[in-house]
Design brief:
This protein is mainly β. It has one domain (2-227): Exo-inulinase, domain 1 (Jelly Rolls). The protein is built from two helices and 17 strands. It has helices spanning 38-41, 97-100, and strands at residues 2-7, 10-15, 26-33, 45-48, 52-56, 61-65, 71-80, 83-91, 104-112, 115-122, 127-134, 137-144, 157-165, 174-180, 183-190, 200-206, 215-227. The strands form two sheets. Strands 1, 2, 4, 7, 9, 10, 11, 12 and 16 form a nine-stranded antiparallel β-sheet that branches. Strands 3, 5, 6, 8, 13, 14, 15 and 17 form an eight-stranded antiparallel β-sheet that branches. The longest helix has 4 residues, at 38-41. The chain is globular.
């Protein structure tokens, strides 16, 4: 297993880091971005979405979804297959009420090449999904409804997505965990995880069918890699 980190012109290769499952094991941070300055926010680059606008508030990255766009995604400088990404996100004032009701905040791993694994959190619906996208379409690997920690639609939410590959007889599979404020709320095991071969890590925001008008803010990105002692 190889995990790569690329920040600006620096590349770091981390080899042989595997753990037993998505919901357990030790992880170490390899990238942090508070998104508090213009320089920090410029490290986050658009990777998907037809009409997307990126801006900055005092301590956050602001993403606005435009016309005929379901979702906007912005990647971090970190690439790799087995990783964990976390960030604090929220739906911001100025988002139309009808859009708030259906909007999601997301994190993506293994994005690229027409595929991704994504944690989608719908604050107004108190719902969490783990989705797998390929060129064939989207498959929902896990759906959790009535999530009690999602109390208000426009309050900050601490999201975390973790993906770890299986080994030996489980090669080609992966375990996926979705967390809110440190609590595991959705998990899945995908026996065909090799169908998703991208390596990008990303933040996302959108709404099914059309997310126009959604304004989302993100703070405090952390990307971690698994370690074995």
């Amino acid at each position: 297993m190889k995990t790569k980190l690329a920040i600006a012109t620096v590349s770091l290769l981390v080899v042989g880091l595997v753990v037993a499952g998505a919901a357990s094991g030790a992880f170490v941070a390899i990238y942090r971005n508070a998104l508090e300055t213009t320089a920090q926010r410029t490290e986050i680059i658009k990777v998907a979405g037809k009409e997307c606008t990126r801006g900055g508030a005092q301590t956050s990255l602001k993403i606005t979804v435009g016309k005929l766009t379901e979702e906007c995604a912005y990647r971090t400088p970190v690439v790799g297959s087995d990783l964990e990404i976390a960030a604090t996100g929220r739906i911001l004032e100025g988002t139309p009420a009808a859009v708030v009701k259906k909007s999601f905040l997301g994190l993506q791993l293994r994005a690229g090449g027409g595929g991704k694994l994504e944690l989608r959190v719908f604050p107004a619906q108190k719902k969490v999904q783990i989705a797998k996208a390929t060129e064939a379409g989207i498959k929902y690997l896990a759906i959790k409804k009535n999530v009690v920690s999602l109390k208000e639609a426009m309050k900050p939410v601490v999201l975390r997505l973790r993906v770890v590959s299986g080994a030996g007889e489980s090669a080609g599979t992966c375990k996926i965990g979705g967390y809110l404020a440190g609590e595991l709320v959705a998990e899945a095991e995908d026996p065909a995880c090799s169908e998703v071969s991208g390596e990008m890590t990303a933040l996302s925001a959108g709404a099914p069918n059309n997310g126009v008008g959604l304004i989302a803010g993100f703070e405090a990105i952390v990307v971690r890699t698994p370690v074995r002692f």
